[in-house]
Structures are given as structure tokens and as C-alpha cells.
Specification:
The chain has 89 residues and is of the alpha/beta class. It has four helices and three strands, in the order βαβαβαα. A three-stranded parallel sheet has the order 1-2-3.
């Protein structure tokens, strides 16, 4: 039996994030998504994504963080506190 792929998380579902989440789900990779607005999550839910309500909830569902990339940092970035949570994983 093939091992279950590790869960991935995508914070922010702009063009790039939505595409990455869609690809992961189509490949059978368990995927958690978070976005400020609910609209971009609807079709991903149909593909099997778990939609987190907060960035903290997203991080809490990961067994470990192996790598992450954050683009477009702003002082009002809601993912900024999640970066600190990921550092210890």
C-alpha cells in the first residue's frame, strides 16, 4: 500500500495559491486552504479541500512545516503571526 501523502496548506488563494491548491487536490494530496474571502474556496471544497477559518487553524493542522514561501508581506498581513508558529516546526 502506498503511503498517504503529507498534508499541504495554502494561505491565500490568488491566482498562484488557487492554482497550487487545485493541482495538489487533483493529485490526491490532502490540502488545507485559507483565504480572506470565502469565494475562492468554494470550488476547492468541491475538490476535497479543508477550509480553515484562521491562519492559526491552518498551521495547527500541519504535522510539520518542511518549507514555506511568503510573498507580498504587508504590515496588515494576517499570516504574519503564522510565520512565528511555523518557525518551531
Amino acid at each position: 500500500m502506498a503511503p498517504q501523502p503529507e498534508t499541504v496548506a495554502v494561505l491565500g488563494l490568488g491566482s498562484m495559491g488557487h492554482g497550487m491548491a487545485s493541482s495538489a487536490l487533483r493529485a490526491g494530496i490532502p490540502t488545507i486552504v485559507w483565504n480572506r474571502r470565502a469565494d475562492p474556496t468554494r470550488d476547492l471544497t468541491d475538490l476535497g479541500a479543508y477550509v480553515a477559518e484562521t491562519t492559526s487553524e491552518t498551521v495547527a493542522h500541519l504535522s510539520q512545516a518542511r518549507g514555506s514561501q511568503f510573498w507580498g508581506r504587508r504590515s496588515s498581513d494576517p499570516a504574519s503571526h503564522s510565520r512565528a508558529e511555523l518557525r518551531g516546526r
